[in-house]
Each structure stands twice: as C-alpha cells, then as structure tokens.
Amino acid sequence: ESFAKDDFIYGQFPSYFRWGIGTSSYQIEGAWNLDGKGENVWDNFTHTSPSPIKDSSTGDIACDSYHKYEEDAKLVKSIGVDFYRFSISWSRILPLGTKEKVNQAGIDYYNNLINSLLHHEVSPVISIHHWDLPQPLQDIGGWVNEDLIEHFGDFARILYQNFGDRVKQWFTFNEAWVICVMGYGDGIFAPGIKEISETPYKCIHTILKAHARAYRIYDEEFKSQQKGQVGITIDSGWLEPSDPNNPEDIEASERALQFKFGMFASPIVFGKYPDIVRKRVDERSKQEGRSTSRLPSFDKYWTDYIKGSYDIIGLNHYSSYLVTPASSDPGPGWYGDQDTATSQDPSWPETGSTWLRPVPWGFRKVLNWIKNTYNNPPLIVTENGYSDLPNVVLNDYGRIEYYKGYINNLLKAVIVDGCNVRGYSAWSLMDNFEWASGYTERFGLHNRERIPKESVKFLKNVFRSNGFRRPNLPWDRQSKEQ
Ligand code: GBH
C-alpha cells in the first residue's frame, strides 16, 4: 500500500466522474394509499400489530415526497450533484403488481419528478426495485415464486417504455441480500419471514433471474434506441480478517465477502455462485441427509442468460467488520453455512446505528477486492452515508468527518489503485423512514423539513471541486508566475 491507512491526500477525480444523492420510494414518498396506489409489503409490515418497527412508525406520510417532488428536485439541485438516484414504487405504477392494471397517476408522478430534475439539469438514475414489493405478489409467495421473474420483467418494460427516453441509468434491485436474508431469513424486515435454512437461497435465485430478465429486455427491446445502461446494486461492508496474520481469519474474511457480495456478483460476472458457497452448502446439505442442495443451481439456459447481465455494478457501502471463523454452528442456513463471526473494533467511532462505525480505509479495501476479484468492472457507488441519533440536529460534524474520510479513500482507490469507479452517490437527500428503525436513525443531508445540515456545504464543495483541491497558498501563485 502506497499510503498509511488514514493519510489524507489532495487530488481530483477523472473528468468522467459523476456525483449524486439518493433516496428510495417507501422511505420518502408517503401517500401510501392515494391516487390508485396498491398496498406493498412495507405498508403491510408497518401496519401489523404489534408493530415490528422500533418507534412503531410507518411510511404512510414519510417525507411526503409524493406531493413535494418539486421541492425535492430543487434540494437535489442545491447540492450541486450531477444525478439523483431514486426508486419506483412498484404498486404505485401497478397496484396489483401485474401489468393488467396500470395506474396512470403513478406514471404521471414519476414523469413530473423526472421532468423537474431535468429542468434543473440533474440526471435521473432509477432503482427499479428498493424493497417495496406489491402485496398481491407477496400473497402468491413473493420472491420464492418464480412467476415473479416475468412480473418483474413486465414492470421493468413499462418503466423503460414510459421513462426510458429521459432515463439513461437503471439499477434493477437495491441490495437483494437485505430482501432475502433480512426479509425471508431473519424476518426483521418485510415480509417478516423467518426461514433461515433454505428460503434466502431461493429468494436470491429468483431475484438473480428477474434481474437478468430486466437486463435482457432492455438489451433486446430498448438499448439500441435509448442507449442507456442497466446494472444491479449490491451491498457490502469491508470484511477485514480479525488477525490479518492468521490464515484462518484471512480465509474467513474471503468466505464472508463471497457470501455477501459474491452471491450476486459472481453469477452476473461468471455465471455461477461463488465456488466456496457452492462447495459448503452442497456438502452441508448432504450431511443433513438431503437429496438436493439447499442452494439451487442454474441450468445452461439461465447460466448464459445471467452471465454478463450488467453494464455497470452499483456498490452500497457503509462500514467494516472484523471476521474470524464462528465459534459454534447455528445449524443449516445462511449463517451456519458460511462459518464466520463478525464484530467491530470498539475503538472505531460510534454513530446513530449500531451496525455502522466509520472505517474510511475499509472503503478503499472493498473497492480493491472487487477490482481484483471481478477484473475491475465498471462501478458506481450507489450509496454511502452516516447516521445520527435524533439528538443531533443541523450541526452534523460527525457526518462531515465521515464523508471526508470515505470520499478521500475513494479518491485513492480511483487515482492511486486504478479502481474503475465512475460515480458516487451519497445517502441520503433527507432524513427519512429508516425501515425497522423508523425515524430513530437519520441519514439525511437535510432534515425532514428539508432544512440543510452543515454537511451540505462540505459535500457541495467536494462535488464542485470534483475531489479535494489543495487550498491556494502564496507559494503556488509565486511558482506559477515564475
Ligand atoms: C441501505 O442498506 C439501504 O439501501 C437504505 O435504504 C437504508 O436507508 C440505508 O442502508 C441506511 O440503513 O438493524 O442491526 O439488523 C444498507 C445495508 C442492511 C445496513 C440492514 C443495516 C440492518 C442492521 N443495511 N442493516 S440491524
């Protein structure tokens, strides 16, 4: 490594680099039952009692972005970004989840938002699905039912048809790992299913096929005219060996990265699940006396269909973890299969979220791991951000420190290490409904009243400078004049 872990460098990103800010539909829109929108799994989940949400809140109103999209577009503009990454509420467009019934008010809403952004010269970047599955599709099994592959394809096609003349960057899924492990395994996110042994694998399998379907539809029916790009957003922290000199910890770190990022990246890049995942789940399934592996396989057709189904990969990254082999086996399923235990170094600063401690150098490491493992694919950082507890209001100095360290490590990854990162999107435009934590954790650059926090000034300056410009010092001027 050419720099100590925490060295700050001055420098600028390449001229093609693009800056953005992000949100997602359920977290900001509200208007959960207005103008023909159907119910989705997060509406359903937050309306169950007792509430599974920390402060018993819902996204019924959230930031009211359904009514305030013009203010949102202005806010986005005021940060000086090139793009705004937002997601589409599937049940606002297709109230029943299927193409039989299209809700024109939903199409109108996103047309208005897109046109407001373009009016401010901000490019729209769309996440097709950020967790708010129409409830009628959950009622037929959700992501374990392979009928959803075609329904997702239909949904994507409707979006390309209606918005593709103006939208050139699409991401099919946001963090399918969260949907499948937290939603169908741990059950702490919607739809609240607690079946850790097999269901997350089935969910991942269907989602990968649905992703490829949406990619191929664009490629075959729209790309030559619309000339955009389609990718998928995958989340991963950096998973550092607990003891970097211990070979068992080094192996555990690699295993954890393969179970997390590799589960999605390896199929789309190489056409198969990571070898280590295949081997471990197959072996353990056999030991359990099963005739087939808990991890499904892709046949020849799907292998070819999924392999290469990306123009770009999105990375969501927030924090780092220390990894070592697990001390006990929790049994068949997602956690037992990978045999890893993760922790965080208590010396790393705390934030508003228990799982998020700032570790800026981990960002550079995960970017380099992706570069080395997948032959330096084009990447966009689709999310990176910092949370405060409600007691921190507008003086968010912790957030400034975080962005400074993380974006500086991104700069090192790009200009020193040659990682092929094309853009960066901070999370989030404003405080919003933070899933199972409700409104108790705040990631916004603005509060929910849309008042800017201190960090806006800082990020605006980084974006405008395309990096970190060394302050002009008297001797700079002198040397230029000589
Ligand atoms: C992103 O996920 C989401 O894409 C975004 O919607 C969200 O607002 C943002 O993070 C901030 O959380 O509660 O201890 O069980 C990042 C990955 C996965 C991190 C779920 C937090 C919950 C940990 N997230 N995880 S815990």
Automatic annotation (TrEMBL):
It comes from Orchesella cincta. SUPFAM superfamilies: (Trans)glycosidases. Gene3D superfamilies: Glycosidases. One of its GO terms (molecular function) is beta-glucosidase activity. One of its GO terms (biological process) is carbohydrate metabolic process. Homodimer. InterPro entries: GH, GH_1_N_CS, Glyco_hydro_1. It holds the Pfam family Glyco_hydro_1. This is Lactase-like protein. Belongs to the glycosyl hydrolase 1 family. Keywords: Glycoprotein, Glycosidase, Hydrolase, Signal.
